[in-house]
Every structure is written in C-alpha cells, then in structure tokens.
Design goal:
This protein has about 160 residues and is α+β, with helices and mostly antiparallel strands. It has one helix at about 10-70, and strands spanning about 70-75, 80-85, 95-100, 110-125, 130-145, 155-164. It has one domain. The chain contains one helix and six strands.
Length: about 160
C-alpha cells in the first residue's frame, strides 16, 4: 500500500526557498553598498591628491613670480594680467594679490602678500650707513573643487614664506 503524504507538510519547500532568497538578497545588497562606498572613497582620495598637487603647483608658481620678476606677476593664465605684489615703502601695509589658475587639475587661487622690512645696515664708512631692506612674501595657494555642501568637495591649502 502506498502512503500519501500528510497535508500538513505541503509547501514547506517553498517557505525554505523564500527564506534562502531573502538571505541572498540581503547579502547582495550589502555587497553592493560596500562596493559603492569603496568607489566613493577612492574618488575622494583621488580628488584630494589632485587638489594637493594643484595647490603645490600654485605655491611654486607664486614663488617663481615673486622672486624672478620682482613680483610683477604677468602671464596669460585665465587671460593676460599684470599684478604687483609689492607695497611702496618700508612699513607700508601688506598688499594682497590674487591670481586664479584654472588650467590645473583642480582650480587654484594664489594669493601673494608682501611686506618690506629693514634688516641690519650696510656701512661704507664709520659715518655713512644705510638700511638693508628685505622683502618678505607670503604665498598662499588654495585649490578647491565642488561646492562646500556636496559630499565630493575637496580643498587643499598650501603656504610658503620667502624673503628676497
């Protein structure tokens, strides 16, 4: 005689299959979430590295402009401009010059502040002495990309103080 299965056991396989499918779907969602987070982190690291290098390039450009051309900043980056980063006399207020550099990986704004000081004296005789002027330049480069409120916003700031 053949025994027929009890009606109480019908559908147990379907319930087990649904539970397994729900567990696998949860596992897949977790993997996708982890992958997305990892991709965003990698993109932010890359943007931060580019911003850092752009800020460094901006500082180097500013130092070159300040020391090689008497701080008469000239060039054709973002159109022709001719800026001066030198105040008139010793003790004059510091002058700030801003030059935008947009042809780098991350746009950079370079600020130059300059002040002149007297450091020691140069004497040609026991009665004839003149002050030795020293010009101090503070070059600040700010590289930023994106908007401040966005998750992908990056900003790096570099500063150099040189005297001539």
């Amino acid at each position: 005689m053949i025994r027929m299965p009890s009606s109480k056991q019908k559908g147990f396989g379907a319930i087990a299959a649904i539970i397994v499918l729900v567990l696998l779907a949860g596992l897949a969602a977790g993997i996708v979430s982890l992958s997305t987070t990892q991709s965003l982190t990698l993109a932010q690291d890359e943007a931060a590295a580019k911003a850092n290098q752009s800020a460094r390039a901006g500082v180097e450009w500013g130092v070159y402009q300040a020391l090689s051309s008497g701080a008469n900043w000239g060039g054709t980056i973002n159109g022709p401009f001719n800026l001066t980063c030198e105040p008139g006399a010793v003790g004059a207020a510091a002058k700030v010059v801003t030059a935008p550099l947009s042809n780098l990986a991350v746009p950079v704004t370079v600020n130059c502040t300059s002040q002149q000081f007297n450091e020691g004296e140069t004497c040609t005789s026991s009665t004839s002495c003149t002050a030795s002027p020293v010009r101090v330049y503070t070059i600040t480069a700010i590289a930023s990309q994106g908007t401040v409120t966005s998750p992908g916003y990056v900003e790096r700031r570099r500063q150099a103080i040189v005297y001539h």
